[in-house]
UniProtKB/TrEMBL annotation:
Compartment(s) of residence: Cytoplasm
Primary location: cytoplasm
Catalytic activity: 2 cob(II)yrinate a,c diamide + reduced [electron-transfer flavoprotein] + 2 ATP = 2 adenosylcob(III)yrinate a,c-diamide + 2 triphosphate + oxidized [electron-transfer flavoprotein] + 3 H(+); 2 cob(II)alamin + reduced [electron-transfer flavoprotein] + 2 ATP = 2 adenosylcob(III)alamin + 2 triphosphate + oxidized [electron-transfer flavoprotein] + 3 H(+)
Domain Cob(I)alamin adenosyltransferase N-terminal, residue spans: 14-35
Protein's name in the database: Corrinoid adenosyltransferase
Gene3D superfamilies membership: P-loop containing nucleotide triphosphate hydrolases (3.40.50.300)
NCBIfam families: cobA, PRK05986.1
Superkingdom as given in the UniProt entry: Bacteria
EC id: 2.5.1.17
Top-level taxonomy: Bacteria, Pseudomonadati, Pseudomonadota, Alphaproteobacteria, Hyphomicrobiales
KW Zinc-finger (keyword) present: no
Coiled-coil region(s): none
Pathway annotation from the record: Cofactor biosynthesis; adenosylcobalamin biosynthesis; adenosylcobalamin from cob(II)yrinate a,c-diamide: step 2/7
Region feature (Disordered): 1-28
């Protein structure tokens, strides 16, 4: 390794550039070969979970990307219903492409009413289910659905059964920590956000433009 490093030091800038170009050429050829084997096109079930920040943020990034590609999207917020968010303002600017349903009544520890939470979860899910099964929306985001499932306000089997019935090319994104194992097993794409450091632990409150 040390010998290789020494050799690189002795190369001219032109030689380094040529070496890099050859290396990238081989990498591209290998990459193209792998991509050529990927021929399946389908709508994905996507799960963002974990204790780290960014689950909903990443999901909204996909929603905004879909809007940019002239797709029709649906967004159902299962928990953060009472929060005014920056995402909401952006989504409302595209009424022809976006169906926005803010159904949740806040975090469960704020309502402190289990039956009320279950009813709100059911109403939100019926709206989400309608969009998941229709022929109108190309992508549906069920934001914080995992929290609802964690408290068993809805049966996970019912959610998975609906996902099995969705149109072939429809994408569905589900966010929230503590995703159920059954949902993780069923999903096509699962990302777990890992928290390394968070300002909240240092006494910093939620910031406009960062958390909402």
């Amino acid at each position: 390794m040390a010998e290789k490093s020494e050799k690189l030091k002795n190369l001219s800038e032109e030689e380094l550039n040529a070496r890099h170009a050859e290396k990238m050429k081989k990498k591209k050829a290998a990459r193209d070969k792998i991509i050529a084997t990927k021929t399946i096109e389908k709508g994905l079930t996507i799960v963002h979970t974990g204790k780290g920040k960014g689950k909903s943020t990443a999901a909204f990034g996909m929603i905004f990307r879909a809007i940019g590609n002239d797709m029709k999207v649906g967004v159902v917020q299962f928990v953060k219903g009472k929060w005014g968010t920056g995402e909401r303002k952006v989504l409302e600017a595209f009424p022809d492409q976006v169906t926005l349903a803010t159904m949740g009544e806040g975090f469960t520890w704020e309502t402190q009413d289990r039956q009320r939470d279950i009813e709100a979860a059911r109403q939100a899910w019926e709206k989400a289910r309608e969009m998941i099964l229709d022929d109108v929306h190309d992508m549906v985001l069920c934001d914080e659905l995992n929290i609802v499932l964690r408290y068993d306000y809805l049966p996970v089997d019912e959610i998975i059964e609906t996902l099995k019935q969705k149109p072939e090319m429809k994408h569905v994104i589900i966010t929230g920590r503590n995703a159920k194992d059954e949902l993780i097993d069923f999903a096509d794409l699962v990302t777990e956000m890992e928290m390394v450091k968070h300002p909240f632990r240092s006494g910093v409150k939620a910031q406009v433009g960062i958390e909402f």
